[in-house]
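Q: Structure tokens for this one, please.
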Amino acid sequence: MTYTIGEVEELSGVKSNILRYWETVIPGFAPRKDIGGRRVYTERDFETVLRLKHLIYDKKFTIEGARNEILHQSEQYEKNADTMNTIRQLRTELTQLYMLVRKYR
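A: Here is the predicted structure, written as tokens:
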């Protein structure tokens, strides 16, 4: 499943200008763009947004500290791939349900 920047903004609560800024300072976080130049966020991109939001807004990390923590967490997630795949699948299902409910409101 993919998301537009507006959908990511709505689902995560992070403003689009902040999302665009994070693209410039977080290595490996660069949503691809479609033919029209619009950002297309994957599940992995969305997951990164949620992790960054948690680190910066809840844990009060600086952007540099959050970047380092994301890199460190990536190494840890690779070691626990099965658990992470299960979490990703559950998050995808919940997000799809939310989008479906939102559509029919």
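A few notes: The chain has a mean pLDDT of 87. The chain is about 70% helix and 5% strand.
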